[in-house]
Write a structure and sequence with these properties.
4 strands; four-stranded antiparallel beta sheet; alpha+beta; 83 residues; globular; Alpha-Beta Plaits
């Protein structure tokens, strides 16, 4: 994999946000150095939270972040590499 930085958008759907918030925020905090921006929206009607994150990091960093997010029960994430 390339060590060149890439810009990406990570879309995250969080089921039962109150139960997963601590783990999710700890992981995002660990990767704070590659996070450019974050927007979260609660979707109360479906008991979900929707988070979008813009990151600037290597393929390895982005992959590690999304892998850790995917290991949290009730969290789904997808990456769109943009640049």
């Amino acid at each position: 994999m390339s060590n060149e930085n890439r810009l990406a958008v990570i879309g995250i759907i969080v089921q039962n946000p109150k139960e997963t918030a601590v783990k999710l925020n700890r992981i995002l905090s660990d990767y704070g150095d590659i996070i450019v921006g974050r927007m979260g929206i609660p979707y109360k009607e479906k008991s979900l939270s929707i988070i979008s994150i813009i990151v600037d990091g290597t393929n390895d960093e982005i992959g590690a972040l999304t892998g850790k997010l995917g290991n949290i029960k009730g969290v789904k994430s997808k990456v769109a590499l943009t640049y």
